[in-house]
Amino acid sequence: MWLLCAAMLPVVVQAQFTFTTNNGAITITGYTGSGGTAVIPDTTNGYPVSNIGDEAFYGCTGLTNVTIPTSVTNIGHGVFAFCGNLASIVIPDSVTNIGICAFYSCSNLTSATIGTNVTSIAISTFDSCASLTNVTIPNGVTNVGSSAFQNCASLGSITIPASVISIGLYAFDSCSSLMAITVDPLNTNYSSVDGVLISLNRTTLIQFPGGKQGNYTVPNSVAFIGDSSFDSSVNLTGITITNNVLNIGDFAFDGCTGLTTITMPNSITNIGCWAFDGCSGLTTVTIPNGITFLRDHTFEDCASLTNVTIGSGVSKVGGWVFDGCTNITRFYFQGNAPYVYYASAFSNRIHAIVYYLPGTAGWGGGYWVYSPFFFEGLSFQTKLWLPQVQTGDAYFGIKTNQFGFNINWASGQTVVVESCTDLANPTWTPVGTNTLSGSLSYFSDSQWTNYPGRFYRLRSP
Q1: Considering 156, 175, 194, which residue would you say is the last residue of a domain?
Q2: Residue 245 lies in a domain
Q3: Which of 120, 154, 175 is the endpoint of a domain?
Q4: CA pair distance 429, 316, nearest whole angstrom
């Protein structure tokens, strides 16, 4: 009933503003001025101006400056959204609440001073303020909402005060100039290592600053890489994930277009949906053996991806996993043929060969039909994946009075090196057995000088 009565209150127009009166307090409901500087009065008709109502200045593109009096305690939802020429804002200490999207897409806003009595920075408060370079979160703020500073492309650094107990998803996402997130050492929920926001116990990586460049190694303490934690970090070129990591969250590396190399340990048991979506610089990737299910959209639109090695644990593949990866020419499977839930897992423009290891099952006679809907006839050509002598690298040939070479195959595989002296009437004799701890193993033969000629071949045990 109160809502109905409140809605019937008259809207009064005075000077540049429209407003309503309720219980002896004024709420600014609209702006009728021509732009430039707007000064909100502290009283009107003898009543204090305590609220700036939802969307009161929404889309006022001519507005360049606004003065908020100390009588105001509440700034509503979307109040200054799309005020594209608003240059700076000072929120007085009297304000305790700022609404959702209050300054959304104020594209020329360069600085914002937040009053000391604000306790929450709401969802998308400063989202898409592309020119914002200077903002201080006051001690007393307990919550930084989802997308609060998302797309603030000019923001160079941010400090999380001791009072903050909650930071929402995407809070600092797509801040392409952000070099460091610093956390007050008295904060009881969060910490910072080399400018990267992580949980206090340092087991969850929450946000990588989008402006950091080059290669990055995840700290050894981290077990969980959070959702969207590296999202749109376009200057990141390489990532090394350490052996304690168990989980990579949804959208974790989404849109990391500069990422060219990634090292993932077999400790990882889950890679989230869209985790590497749009990583257009990746050319090769190895999926760890600990992964059993490749989730939807994991590597979608990785346009430069050419070779994919899929770990032995993968038994299920979701939808759109490699959709849009049209340059893949080789898949190397270390285990049995997985069940593919949707034909969309692979773009129908991928023309790749599937290589499989000896002793694995489900690959058929030269073709792997990967769609569960057999009438679609979607398949890949298959070939046996065999060990190869690397004749083109620096390890091939005579080294310290021994003849040797690198063997390339799947990690964990055992390979037998055999030799003979006469290819016309060969008698092959084992001369070494190597187990690959990675994708390469080095073989050397100290007896090579005892023969006028010696030939080598590789086989599995």
Answers
A1: 175
A2: no
A3: 175
A4: 41
Q: Report in angstroms the alpha-carbon separations of 312 from 159, 286, 300, 386, 412.
A: 43, 11, 21, 16, 10
The encoded tokens of residue 297 equal 């959209």
DSSP letters for 120-167: EE-TTTTTT-TT--EEE--BTB-EE-TTTTTT-TT--EEEE-TT--EE
pLDDT digits (tens, 9 = 90+) for 72-117: 999 999 999 999 999 999 999 999 999 999 999 999 999 999 999 9
- pLDDT, residue 13, reads 41
Q: Is 93 inside any structural domain?
A: yes
Beta carbons of 171 and 148 less than 8 angstroms apart: yes
Q: Over the stretch 134-167, which tens digit does the pLDDT of each residue have?
A: 899 999 999 999 999 999 999 999 999 999 999 9
Tokens of 141: 């703020």
pTM of the model: 0.87
Amino acid occupying residue 7 = A
Residue 275 and residue 252 in contact, taking contact as beta carbons nearer than 8 Å: yes
DSSP secondary structure letters along 367-389: EEE--SSGGG--EEEEEE---EE
Burial of residue 233 (number of CB atoms within 10 Å: 0-12, 13-18, 19+): buried
| Adjacent-strand bridge partners of 248 | 225, 271
Paired strand residues for 197: 192, 207
Give, as one character, the DSSP assignment of residue 450. G
Angstrom CA distances, 162 to 143, 166, 200, stand at 11, 11, 12
Determine the 3-state secondary structure of 328 from DSSP: coil
Q: Which of 369, 341, 342 is nearest to 354 (CA)?
A: 369
Q: Is 52 left (phi over 0), alpha (psi -120 to 50) or beta?
A: beta
Which range of residues forms the domain containing residue 52?
11-175
Contact 278, 252 (CB under 8 A): no
Angstrom distance (rounded) from CA 78 to CA 151: 17
CATH, residue 406:
2.60.40
Residues 168-226 pLDDT 10s: 999 999 999 999 999 999 999 999 999 999 999 999 999 999 999 999 999 999 999 99
Q: Please give the Cα distance from 343 to 374 (Å, whole number).
A: 10
In a domain, 209, yes or no: no
Residue 395 forms part of a structural domain: yes
At residue 191, the 3 state secondary structure works out as strand
User: What CATH code is carried by the domain that includes residue 128?
Assistant: 3.80.10.10
> How many domains are contained in the chain?
2
Residue with tokens 């091939």: 396
